[in-house]
Design a protein that fits this description.
The protein contains 12 helices and 2 strands, in the order αβααβααααααααα. Helix 3 packs parallel to helix 5, helix 7 runs parallel beside helix 9 and helix 9 packs parallel to helix 11. The longest helix is centred in the C-terminal third of the chain and has 26 residues.
Length: 261
Amino acid sequence: MLFETFLMTLVLANPGIAVQEEDEKPKPKWLPPEIERAADVEDLAAKEAIKVFTKAFGAASEITDKKYAMDDLAKSRHRKIATVFEKILLRDREGALRCHAARCLAKLGMPESESSLIKAFTARINRDDDDVLEAVGIALGQTGKKSLYSKFGRKFEEVGKGGKSGMALLFGYRQDEDALRLLSQWLDEPRPTNVDSPSNPPASYWKQRFAEYHYVRDEVVWAIWRITGELIQSEDEFREWEKKKKEEEKNERRGMRRRRG
């Protein structure tokens, strides 16, 4: 009781101190930024906005100025505007602008945005660009709710660290339970199980794997937390959670059968 009184006195004297409620579940230290959505516009307004954008984008010589023009256009939500950003994402030679086009499509949050982003993830121009794949993965997560694991799950091992980061956030945003097992494999530091085995990959493989692990782990922890509601920090913890969940589902089915009987 004395400690509780002391704690409340400390909080009242220092409003900046946050006290976690007893029933509040722990959250990851890292959280992705929120996104600001565009406002719907009519056909004529969209046509005018595209006209203004085309002039400003074409006249700009610096990438920063081109991004400003894109940001202005991304304030308006319309299918024709989504088409403009798709062209940049699939054709522009400058990777930084393709990244920004992905973010702009996320702001629109339209079915057309999702279609464009899926095309971009497999497009030849973006295939080896980690930054663009990361931006596209994040944007895809922010533009819909249905599972995309069947479309992207197998690509996780094929892409670099940026692509992995984007895909982890994609699965997290969409709360994709199908991706949990894959994500859990990136909770622990990678290490060879048998160093002396001839089948053990070379040192270069483990160096790359280690770098990818450290790049994506925060995103993986966040994605698993977003899907499960639990802060899971290791593969052992994930297996425990999985075991507990299966047991709960089993007991729930038993309860339903008893109520029916």
